[in-house]
């Protein structure tokens, strides 16, 4: 995460664009892996989460202290959600006497590669569990 001490409109726009790209990337990867997880009776979940103090936040809260956004990865099985990993995108917090931000340092291609690696690990783990249950 890269520390940003001067929060201005350019940074606000950059963070908003990165979050939007993350949402698009999540939707793209969900479609790519949808069938694989469907075969093991699960739904892959890849979502950009925006929170402020653990409660839902909006795009307009980017510079509010305690705002954070992250990509959450997990699976849904029989209407129960199982979180697996999260990747921080942006975090805004109060340090001493002013607000600072922390922004992901990965570019979109590196982020996609990281998410794919996590999804493939989840799929292998869950596929293995299914095979063990089928043997018993």
> For the terminal residues, how far apart are their CA atoms?
45 Å
Order of helices and strands: EHEEEEEH
**How do the strands of the widest beta sheet line up side by side?**
1-6-5-4-2-3
Q: Helix segment count?
A: 2
Q: Helix content range of the residues, please?
A: 40-55%
Task: Calculate Rg over CA atoms.
Answer: 17 Å
Biggest β-sheet description: 6 strands, antiparallel
Strand content bin: 35-45%
Total beta-strand segments: 6
- Tell me the structural class: alpha+beta
Q: Would you tell me the overall average pLDDT?
A: 92
Coiled coil: 8-35
Keywords: Coiled coil
Task: Give me some keywords for this one.
6-stranded antiparallel beta sheet, 35% strand, alpha+beta
Short description:
The protein has 136 residues and is of the alpha+beta class.
How would you portray this structure in words?
Helix 1 runs parallel beside helix 2 (108-135). It contains two helices and six strands, in the order E-H-E-E-E-E-E-H. The longest helix is centred in the N-terminal third of the chain and has 31 residues, at 9-39. It is 43% helix and 35% strand. The model has no long low-confidence stretch (mean pLDDT 92). It is elongated, with a radius of gyration of 17 Å. The chain starts with a strand and ends with a helix. With 136 residues, the protein is α+β, with helices and mostly antiparallel strands. The chain has a six-stranded antiparallel β-sheet with strand order 1-6-5-4-2-3. It has helices at 9-39, 108-135; strands at 2-4, 43-52, 55-56, 67-77, 80-95, 98-103. It has one domain (2-135). Strand 2 (43-52) and strand 3 form a beta hairpin.
């Amino acid at each position: 995460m890269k520390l940003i001490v001067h929060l201005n409109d350019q940074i606000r726009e950059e963070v908003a664009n990165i979050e939007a790209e993350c949402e698009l990337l999540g939707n793209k990867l969900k479609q790519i892996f949808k069938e694989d997880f469907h075969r093991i009776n699960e739904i892959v979940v890849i979502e950009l989460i925006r929170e402020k103090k653990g409660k839902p936040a909006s795009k307009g809260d980017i510079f509010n202290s305690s705002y954070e956004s992250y990509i959450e990865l997990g699976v849904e099985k029989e209407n129960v959600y199982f979180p697996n990993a999260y990747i921080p995108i942006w975090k805004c917090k109060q340090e001493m006497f002013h607000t600072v931000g922390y922004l992901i340092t990965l570019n979109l291609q590196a982020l996609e590669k990281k998410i794919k690696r996590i999804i493939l690990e989840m799929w292998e783990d869950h596929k293995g569990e299914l095979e063990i249950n089928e043997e018993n």
